[in-house]
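Annual report, structural modelling task.

Input specification for the calcium ion complex:
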Amino acid sequence: MLRQNDKYSGTIYGNELSLDGLEYYIEVFDGVNIVSKGTSAEPYYVVIKDASTISRRGDVDGDGTITTRDALMIMKSINGDIILTDDQFIRADLNEDGVLSSSEALRILQYINGKVTTLTM
Ligand SMILES: [Ca+2]
Ligand SMILES: [Ca+2]
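The model returned the following structure:
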């Protein structure tokens, strides 16, 4: 860690992280005493999410484009024909209410057809 005035800081860059998350603890030793926050046995845990998959709302299958297939996946999920992954669900749940509805599939179709200009509901 780097010291600046009386504060210490460290930087962990995104390319050093993975979606497995991050565990850490901090231990300070002044030559006599050791003080720690968290331990190697009980570290703090940081959840790491891929922002690129979350921000692509409407692109349910995650192929980079919004097509009728994405709307179809929502309908299939509602009917119980398929089970979406967590990331797929987040991209499908356009109004962010935690539930999928046919209105979200319809919104995607309207977006594709140019009837609406945004997927925000
Ligand atoms: Ca797609
Ligand atoms: Ca919803």
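Residues 94 and 104 are 6 Å apart (CA to CA).
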